[in-house]
Design brief:
By secondary structure, this protein is an alpha+beta fold. The chain is built from eight helices and 31 strands. The strands form nine sheets. It has a four-stranded antiparallel sheet with strand order 1-26-25-24, with no helix packed on it. A four-stranded antiparallel sheet has the order 2-3-4-5, with no helix packed on it. Helix 1 (2-36) packs across helix 5. Bound molecules: calcium ion (2 copies). It comes from Actinidia rufa.
Length: 473
């Protein structure tokens, strides 16, 4: 009896010792992770996933023409000069240019693998953001580092740049805390470590225009240069900073709740903007952002980051009007042709696309069907429109896996066109539906659906704002 009790006591004691040991190990590991973690993370609130799902997906980016395939290693940004010569900075330290006759030229070399944003000044100099060296100028005389410090601090992660008409260079700094190779740590950190800076070429001074940005990325000027737009990648939004007028010096939201983390932004000839969207929204990432412990864990074991990031799985660009409304979007939903698209520049009715996973520049024709139209009305493939409507009205989708999309609404069967590329086209036949989808992310209400019209027009609004019908043909 005594020996049995003693044995049970010994066994309990072993269990307790083992439990204590395991607990101590776990505590030690957690302690190690937190102590050695390179971040001091904040919880980051992401926009609801519905904001992304309201932009119907299409596969237009899969139709890009590949320029210079194999010659341009991960070109983050592109610029085209007034003569139609395209410039890009590549990972192997070259500024390469594509002439109108289709020939590529290795134009200037710099000892760097971190050149990103690129623009051309009025005087013809090429200005490049170098994530490790600051702001560079390339011209016939060679390379000059224009600035590498602000307020005595080294500039890290310079990302995108634009020249204003007075010669000032506005440029973004993604993070003052983490460098190019650790940009993902800034995301996990979830803090406003970014800045918008200004370089004055006459005084050679560099100053902070906006501090405390959530990864400052793309920078663009408005048509009249009365404001500039700077994008905050981690916040899925871009801000407007007034350069003149009564709001001079003020900052306000230009567009938020974007379907991805905005990367570079470029002004289009019609006054709208093209914004590349990093595909950071995923259920995995949302989960990570809710837990500081997970952030520490991922920051300590970078292999884990590969499991949750989504930027190399797909690509998307959106066209945003000057009033901040999304007009249209193009994407590669599987990353089959292009992923991690970081910039989109419109020139001569084409989009030129840079990417951090491609070895070419994407060129996408903007034809009449895709070029104009309000909201998502134009530019969305018929199938995407069709699927968006059937989903919006919770209609059964008869052929979910086929290449065709068909559904019934008000007893009328709609089938996507094989011939008409875009739902927004004004030449739709009676059996096709015309759709205008607002993208504000709030309640759903149908504001017009008339089965009596030969040319059906379904207006779907989720803004809860204006109920006024957008003019029909
Ligand atoms: Ca740029
Ligand atoms: Ca960028």
């Amino acid at each position: 009896m005594d020996s049995t009790a003693a044995s049970a006591r010994t066994s309990r004691s072993h269990v307790t010792t083992c439990s204590c040991f395991v607990l101590s190990c776990l505590l030690a590991i957690t302690f190690q992770i937190v102590i050695f973690s390179p971040i001091s993370p904040d919880i980051l609130e992401l926009p609801p996933a519905t904001s992304a799902s309201l932009v119907p997906t299409n596969s237009r980016l899969q139709r890009v023409i590949k320029l210079g395939e194999g010659l341009v290693e991960t070109p983050e940004d592109v610029w085209v000069d007034k003569n139609g010569i395209l410039y890009t900075a590549t990972r192997d330290g070259w500024i390469k240019r594509l002439h109108r006759n289709g020939s590529w030229e290795d134009w200037r070399k710099f000892d760097s693998n971190a050149m990103f944003g690129i623009t051309i000044t009025k005087s013809g100099s090429i200005i490049v953001c170098d994530c490790e060296k600051g702001l560079l100028k390339f011209d016939e005389d060679g390379v000059t580092v224009l600035t590498s410090h602000v307020n005595g601090n080294e500039i890290r992660l310079a990302d995108d740049v634009i020249e204003a008409s007075d010669g000032s260079l506005y440029f973004s700094v993604g993070s003052t805390k983490f460098g190019y190779h650790n940009w993902h740590l800034d995301l996990l950190d979830g803090k406003p470590n970014g800045q918008l800076l200004k370089y004055d070429p006459s005084s050679k001074d560099t100053s902070i225009v906006i501090d405390g940005l959530y990864f400052a990325n793309g920078v663009a000027l408005s048509t009249d240069q009365d404001y500039l737009v700077v994008c905050e990648t981690w916040k899925y939004r871009c801000l407007k900073y007034w350069l003149s007028g009564e709001d001079k010096g003020k900052t306000q939201i230009f567009v938020d709740n974007l379907p991805g983390g905005p990367d570079n932004i470029n002004l289009a000839p019609d006054g709208s903007y093209w914004i590349a969207q990093l595909q950071l929204i995923s259920s995995r990432f949302e989960f990570v952002h809710t837990s500081k412990v997970f952030k520490h864990l991922i920051a300590t074991f970078p292999g884990l980051y590969e499991l949750v990031k989504g930027v190399d799985k797909k690509a998307m660009v959106v066209n945003v009007a000057a009033d901040g409304k999304i007009i249209r979007s193009f994407d590669d939903p599987t990353g089959e042709v292009m992923s991690f698209v970081t910039s989109a520049l419109e020139f001569d009715d084409h989009l030129y696309l840079g990417s951090l996973t491609s070895n070419f520049i994407g060129k996408l024709p903007l034809n009449a069907n895709t070029a104009r139209g309000p909201l998502l009305h134009g530019g969305v493939s018929c199938r995407a429109c069709c699927e968006a409507i059937s989903e919006f009205f919770s209609l059964p989708h008869p052929h979910p896996m086929s290449m065709r999309c068909a559904f019934n609404l008000h007893g009328v069967r709609y089938v996507e066109s094989d011939n008409i590329d875009d739902c927004g086209s004004h030449q739709m036949t009676p059996k096709y539906v015309k759709v205008q989808v607002y993208n504000c992310g709030k309640s759903k209400s149908t504001i017009g659906a008339s089965p009596s019209l030969r040319l059906r027009q379904v207006l779907v609004s989720d803004c809860g704002k204006s109920k006024s019908q957008i003019a029909a043909e």
